[in-house]
Write a structure and sequence with these properties.
nine-stranded antiparallel sheet, 329 residues, alpha+beta, 8 helices, six-stranded antiparallel sheet, 18 strands, 29% helix, 30% strand
């Protein structure tokens, strides 16, 4: 396994584009196209080869069950939202599920006010968890791996972050669903989506909001990047709607290069992945994130700027039954 520093040494930063306070940097890998040797979760579900369901009849908040009947493994990407079943969840990390295999997968709930079945199977959403929640949740999973070897998040912190976001964006949802944030702000979010394009040979994307680089995702394939491009734009667009409209820094290519350099320099550790491969985690002075190594390469890397501070969170439990009465751990 080569290092993340070596991985990013193969990547070029392309010409940036900007819409209002959201800036996008394409990450290019030249002459690296190859046929995919795995399925994506969305495609596997659409083809009827992959099912995601509750772990049991009673359900378990931090876990779901996935059955892959395909001849290929299936890639699940950190932050993907799964909707349906007893409540909506997001994936806690990237996982490569073996072919012809059933297993439990670690997730976080993003719909605190519902615990009743909306469907048997869960489907993928058209967005990724927004970076303001995804970055801290990734760090929570890293701490969990260090302390107990599990891949769990701080579920209550996730719920509190979603409540704070909903309050700032004046979003009402009877079940406190993260999906309501995207639904009720679809017009603003889709304006960003329509303004950006995925380039040829683009295998990753980095984002800056109001002049500050906030995060990136890198895949092993331009085909996979193309599939996730709009989902990732929606993720950062939701944060852009919740941020200062004026520039507060340069967000230059040089700044992104420093951010990428911080990934390579960050202390890291790896452990056997939940599915195939190795789960790599890194935490540095200004960046943290995770990567999945499998099939002799990094299939996915995600990185986030560390929070410089956090605002006071609004009250969350005033209109809901406290979720701690359910099975969370």
């Amino acid at each position: 396994m080569w290092t993340l520093q070596e991985e990013f040494a193969r990547i070029e930063i392309g010409q940036a584009s900007q819409i209002r306070n959201l800036k996008l940097f394409p990450l290019i890998r030249r002459n690296a196209s190859q046929p995919l040797d795995y399925l994506l979760l969305e495609d596997g579900i659409a083809q009827g080869k992959v099912r995601v369901t509750e772990l049991s009849g009673g359900g378990s908040v931090p876990e779901l069950s996935i059955t892959n009947t395909a001849e290929l493994p299936v890639l699940l990407v950190d932050g993907e939202e799964l909707v349906g079943a007893k409540q909506n969840r997001v994936l806690n990390l990237s996982i490569l599920v073996p072919a012809k295999h059933t297993m439990a997968i670690p997730v976080s709930c993003v719909e605190a006010g519902r615990w009743c079945s909306a469907s048997v199977d869960l489907k993928t959403a058209s967005h990724i968890m927004y970076s303001g929640a995804r970055g801290p949740r990734t760090s929570q999973v890293t701490r969990s791996m260090r302390s107990s070897g599990s891949r769990s998040s701080d579920q209550r912190a996730v719920w509190e972050e979603l409540a704070a976001k909903a309050a700032r964006l004046k979003t009402a949802s009877p079940t406190q669903a993260m999906s309501a944030l995207y639904d009720q702000h679809a017009r603003g979010v889709e304006e960003f989506v329509r303004g950006f394009n995925c380039q040829k040979e683009q295998c990753g994307v980095a984002f800056a909001i109001s002049g500050r680089v906030l995060g990136l995702d890198l895949f092993d394939s331009a085909e996979v990047m193309n599939k996730f491009f709009e989902k990732l734009v929606r993720s950062y667009a939701l944060d852009a709607l919740d941020a200062a409209q004026e520039e507060q820094g340069r967000a230059s290519t040089e700044e992104l290069s420093m951010f990428v350099g911080g990934i390579g320099a960050a202390p890291c550790f790896s452990d056997g992945a939940v599915g195939l491969g190795k789960d790599v985690r890194f935490t540095g002075s200004g960046v943290s994130g995770a990567a999945l190594w499998a099939h002799g390469r990094y299939l996915h890397v995600c990185a986030f700027a560390k929070e410089s501070g956090s605002a006071e969170k609004p009250g969350f439990w005033t209109r809901l039954t406290r979720p701690s009465r359910r099975h969370v751990n």
